[in-house]
Amino acid sequence: MSHEIVKITVEIFGEKHVVRGDGTASYIQGLAHEIDKKMRLIAQRLPRLSVQQMAILTALNLADELAKLREEQETLMQLLGEKIE
């Protein structure tokens, strides 16, 4: 992945956003696509939520996924450390 700052317009939940980030345009577009997909799933399940509420719920879901992956990584690193010793 490139380490240049790129500027790209992405669409998330029907709104266009200009994003600047470290990476390639396709990488940032992929991230935006994942967020859009998660927001649309939440909108299907909870159609009465405001866009802001959906965005917060999406952020909480992503933070939960990240925390679980970090915990899993830590467990794997500990297992690898035990096997090496």
Question: Would you mind describing this structure in some detail?
Answer:
The relative contact order is 0.11. Helix 1 crosses helix 2. The longest helix is centred in the last third of the chain and has 34 residues, at 51-84. This protein is α+β, with helices and mostly antiparallel strands and 85 residues long. The protein is flat. The chain has a two-stranded antiparallel sheet. It is built from 2 helices and 2 strands.
Topology record:
Blueprint lengths: L4 E8 L2 E8 L2 H21 L5 H34 L1
Antiparallel strand pairs: 1-2
Considering the chains and any ligands shown, give keywords for the structure:
alpha+beta; 2 helices; flat
Q: How many structural domains are formed by the residues?
A: 1
Mean model confidence by pLDDT:
93
The helical percent reads 55-70%
Question: Spatial order of the strands in the main sheet?
Answer: 1-2
Instruction: Report the uncertain regions.
Output: none
The total strand number stands at 2
- Give the structural class: alpha+beta
Q: What is the overall number of helices?
A: 2
Distance between the termini: 34 Å
Supply Rg. 17 Å
**H and E order:** EEHH
Q: Proportion of β residues?
A: 15-25%
Describe the largest sheet. Answer: 2 strands, antiparallel
